Amino acid sequence: MKAPIIFAGSSNTKLAKLVSQKSKIPLGAIDIGQFSDGEIDVWVKEEVNNSNVFILQSNSLPVNDNIIELALIADALKRSGAHWITAIIPYFGYSRKEKQSRAGEPISAKVVADLVTSSGINKIICLDLHADAIVGFFNVPVIYLTALEVLAKRLKEEKLNSPVVVAPDVGGVKRARNFAGLLGAPLAVIEKHRQVDAHDKIEVLSISGEVTGDTAVIIDDVISTGGTIVESANALKKRGVNKIIVCATHGVFAGNAIENLEKSPVDKIFVTDSIQHKGINSKKIEIVSVADLIADCLSLEV
């Protein structure tokens, strides 16, 4: 068996380089371009016959292009004789649609899981999916990583006074409870109602748990438009919280998210580099790397 190789898709080349350095697995030569009509063109220039290969690709903006690109890279590697193909997907796009909220909707996460694995991928490594059930959508083995310990380690450096971990909705209670355990902090939960006919619009209903005068640490899997975070922060501020910190694995920051977060009562935001950003113009936001987490996982796979 030949030495393993990592191939970087175009969505997160910075993280791929870090993982390569830390895991001591070299990056493979690959050309990724587009035809004049927007179709993606992939050429694997590395010899991969009888090799174990990894593809690192986040399904971030442009989401659809990056999903197709991942599938094309996998197919190219399979046709080039790769022995085993593992896809590292730090951010899995469409994961917020893991069930039908109303009749007539697709289960988008299942559709994307089928599309990706049908291209020849033998194993998936993913990070903090929106719902644990998505692991079962794949017809191949899945290694499910979490960035909670990475975020907790960084947060402990802040030496917070009486932190309270806050779940921004009932669905995030399990994640928040685990995070609270890592910090040795109590837990509070925000109950909210999301308008079915209005994307990313929420109404905070109540907060369970004592938060007055404390530092509130909101933990979530993804920040998209920031609507959930802003509404949660406003509700916490009304309850007398002194300081508000947000931790999330995936910083999508869609639309006017950064501008809205800048105007919000949130004091600090920690997100990982599961999604690559060319530049974030905000002093509130700090990127925490998951490169060591992924590299440690790969060391068990080679």
Protein architecture, described:
Helix content is 28%, strand content 28%. The termini are close together. It has helices at 13-23, 63-79, 108-117, 148-156, 173-183, 227-238, 257-263, 291-299, and strands at residues 2-8, 30-34, 40-44, 51-56, 84-89, 123-127, 142-145, 163-167, 187-194, 202-208, 215-223, 243-251, 268-272, 285-288. The chain folds into two domains: 2-146 and 291-299, Rossmann fold; 148-273, Rossmann fold (3-Layer(aba) Sandwich). The strands form three sheets. Strands 10-9-8-11-12-13-14 form a seven-stranded mixed sheet. Strands 1-4-5-6-7 form a five-stranded parallel sheet, sandwiched between helices. The protein has a two-stranded antiparallel sheet with strand order 2-3. The mean pLDDT is 91. The chain has eight helices and 14 strands. The protein is of the alpha/beta class and 302 residues long.
Tally of DSSP β-strands? 14
Q: What share of residues are in beta strands? A: 25-35%
The oligomerization state is single chain
CATH class of the largest domain: Alpha Beta
Alpha-beta content class: alpha/beta
Radius of gyration (CA) equals 20 Å
Uncertain runs with pLDDT below 50, 5 residues or more? none
Query: Main beta sheet, described?
Result: 7 strands, mixed
Count of alpha and pi helical runs: 8
Reading side by side through the largest sheet, how are the strands ordered? 10-9-8-11-12-13-14
CATH architecture of the largest domain: 3-Layer(aba) Sandwich
String of helices and strands: EHEEEHEHEEHEHEEEHEHEEH
CATH topology name of the largest domain, in short, is Rossmann fold
The end-to-end span amounts to 11 Å
What is the 3D shape?
elongated
Assign a percent range to the helix content. Answer: 25-40%
Mean pLDDT: 91
Number of domains: 2
